[in-house]
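To whoever picks this up:

The nightly regression suite flagged 20 kDa chaperonin, chloroplastic as changed. Nothing in the input moved, so I suspect the structure step. Input below, exactly as stored in the fixture:
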Amino acid sequence: MANSFLKRSKQTWTKISTLHPCCHTIVERDRVLVKLGAAEEKTVGGILLPSTAQSKPQGGEVVAVGEGRTIGDKKVEVSLQIGAEVVYSKYAGTEVQFNDTKHLILKEDDIIGVLETDDVKDMKPLNDRVLIKVAEAEDKTAGGLILTETTKEKPSIGTVVAVGPGPLDDEGKRQPLSVSAGSTVMYSKYAGSEFKGADGTNYIVLRVSDVMAVLS
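Regenerated output under the current build:
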């Protein structure tokens, strides 16, 4: 039996097609269908959040991929596998509902990286993105004044943990990135997507074009 496939328009869900349960025909070209993870129901301190205050999830499971796209004379397949746990750009994609479960239809380039464990430090960045461990903010000013968490200046320096395979050129070939794991870099202050590791360490994933300088 086919399943109803719904697309949200403002505050309503509108039926846009009827699909087979395998759902591999939902997405085309370089699109990816991701089943959304659950929103956080509690704060770090254990306070229960109402549904309106729960943070929008940025991760989920790939349940369908398109057939890829053609660049020049080369057919380029989607690099993601069904079942992969991925993280995506916060405001990307089109939200849909399939079998009463929320999903997102995304372009492959909207996927930030693949989570190989439950810890963001093990994320595998995609395309032209890099995963950076953020340097710790200074606890004191030059004059010795102790800073609170809210007054600490946001650092824009960190150590590259992992890099993506590089962007595709006009012939569909991967171009290696200009930075490598272990490099200390300075990056654009308001770029990228921020994450916190299992041990509380801050990480950021951004495009290599947002790296302004390699310091070491």
